[in-house]
Amino acid sequence: MEEISRASGSVGLSYGAHSNLCINQLVRNGTTAQKQKYLPKVVYAKTDIVAHSERMTAFIIEKGMPGFSMAQKLDKLGMRGSDTCELVFENCFVPEENVLGQEGKGKVADMYT
């Protein structure tokens, strides 16, 4: 990651977040079916950062799920090569097979990323 970041901080940031925050969740907590389905094409996001996280649950949201959309790309001051946008959830139903690990144990899973 250091060599990638030396050439481009934006690419290094994207690679680090994707590999360390997202991929590790699936590798450590995903079922075999989840790993086979999602590891080739994943993205990581966190819910409300100011909310308490004692009973946080990690889950998979698929592009195109009813109630899920992406807002416009943010125009940032730096790291423009690492796209960032808001993820919008409006009555988005998450099926049980999309839960990573155990319900309410996402904080523990997040600590291992």
Summarize this entry quickly:
This is Acyl-CoA dehydrogenase/oxidase N-terminal domain-containing protein. The protein has 113 residues and is an alpha+beta fold.
* Backbone shape: globular
**Unreliable parts:** none
Second rung of CATH, namely the architecture: Beta Barrel
Strand order of the largest sheet: 1-4
Q: Which CATH class applies here?
A: Mainly Beta
Mean pLDDT: 75
Beta fraction of the residues? 5-15%
Q: Can you put this structure into words, describing what you see?
A:
By secondary structure, the protein is of the alpha+beta class. The chain has one domain: Beta Barrel (Butyryl-CoA Dehydrogenase, subunit A, domain 2), CATH 2.40.110. The protein contains four helices and four strands. The model has no long low-confidence stretch (mean pLDDT 75). InterPro entries: Acyl-CoA_Oxase/DH_mid-dom_sf, AcylCoA_DH/ox_N, AcylCoA_DH/ox_N_sf, AcylCoA_DH/oxidase_NM_dom_sf.
Index terms:
113 residues; alpha+beta; Butyryl-CoA Dehydrogenase, subunit A, domain 2; two-stranded antiparallel sheet; 4 helices; globular
Question: What's the layout of helices and strands?
Answer:
Blueprint: H1 2-7, H2 9-29, H3 32-38, E1 58-59, E2 68-73, E3 85-89, E4 99-100, H4 106-111
Antiparallel strand pairs: 1-4, 2-3
